[in-house]
Amino acid sequence: MKQIVAITATTVVVLGIIAGVYFFFFYKPGPTLTADTASSGNPFGDSGSAATNTGNASAPGDTGTSESGNIPAQVAPKLVQVTNAPVGKGFIVLDPVASTTASTSEVTTGAAVRYIDRESGNMYEYSTASNASTRLTNHTVPGVQEVSWLPNGTAAFLRFITPGQGSDEHVNTYELPADGSDGAFLAEDLMQVIPQNLTSVFTLSPNSAGSIGYLEQPDGMNPTVLFTSQLSAITVRSSAGAMVAYTKPSANLNGYAFLVNQKTGVFTSILGPLKGLSVLPSPSGTRILMSYVDGSGVVRLAYYDTSNHATTLLPLSTFTDKCVWAPDGASAFCASPVSVPTGTLPDDWYLGTTAFTDRIWKIDFTARVATQVADLPTLVSAPIDAVSLTIDANESTLVFMNKRDDTLWAYSL
Q: Which of 109, 183, 324, 400 has its CA 20 to 30 A from that of 305?
């Protein structure tokens, strides 16, 4: 058995080296994608002022102590299936913490991954050092779909669907503290919740004229309007250095992206029109990763430099939904399909009518090198369509969800 594991590990390393591809990004420049100056009129409306933004729902109750589905399994030398049950989309990987092995009393360090069990709404912490998960909370929040986190992992924002009057349904958001104490509900039917820091959260809410972006406290108190939008179908991505708004991606519609001033709410056009456009800003905001569909229906990945307004094509065919920036912004990790299936992309992929089988790549923007990190089809028999990639500050552990069954996985870098 040890010989088989050793052979497997050696094979994976050799394949990774062989498959590591050096791309110096000296491609023919892509299409003109930039608009260098602010729009004369904000297509998303005006920046705003104070407003009321409160929600209502029944508080979650206590749940049982079942640990089913939260037993990690080592499936390859560097790859762990953290859960075999669905989790809420969105995790956080905290700095390495110490862990004591019961059998040897040896103290080791490893990253701590916090996640939410979809069925129960309980918060768990997985330790890479001990390869074990520990439940942190005991609240029932059934059917959690999406999760966002305060930067230090002390609270999570759980979004889930609840029935309303008649056949109506509503999206509720609950702030769940990691210490097990009671949390608070935010406004009802929020489209997005993005923590900016420990004291400020951005929320996107629909209204009769489109949508409104708020800045508020983590408990939903003291909301202030950052901007108003005439469009309801927008997505916002935020980092410490930049906030970007873009129209929902579709192969059948032209997409546009805008930088959003995080203090004034003013929009500046940067990308578009492009079919299927989606974007992801780097931590500093100096680069913006972008994916789109070209005139031939081919999925393209590129990056936009906010300093010189230039775009550079990258040698991977994937979506920004399958990427994460490294903490220093000098590189990014992306899951890219072995082969891109036919169909209408990205629509079919978002709808779940098609799925990918991925490899993990690292793009180093300083060295201008793209290298394969993990050939997932050689490590695990079941196909993995990796989304919601997350990485720790030390760039030691990469965490992702398999879109095919919503299970959680961790890869040691």
A: 400
Strand, helix or coil for residue 404? coil
pTM of the predicted structure, to 2 decimals: 0.84
Q: How far apart are CA 188 and CA 172, in angstroms?
A: 5
**Separation between Cα atoms, residue 262 and residue 330, nearest integer Å:** 23
CA distance 297 to 317: 11
Q: How far apart are CA 18 and CA 1, in angstroms?
A: 26
pLDDT tens for 250-274 read 999 999 999 999 999 999 999 999 9
In which residue are the tokens 């100056």 written?
A: 37
313 CB contacts (<8 Å, ≥6 apart)? 25, 27, 28, 29, 30, 300, 301, 302
Which residues on neighbouring strands pair with residue 76, listed in sequence order? 79
Cis? peptide before 346, omega within 30° of 0 = yes
The answer to whether residues 234 and 204 touch, using CB atoms and an 8 Å cutoff, is yes
- H or E, element range at 6: helix 2-19
* Interstrand relation of 299-305 and 243-247 (parallel, antiparallel or unpaired): unpaired
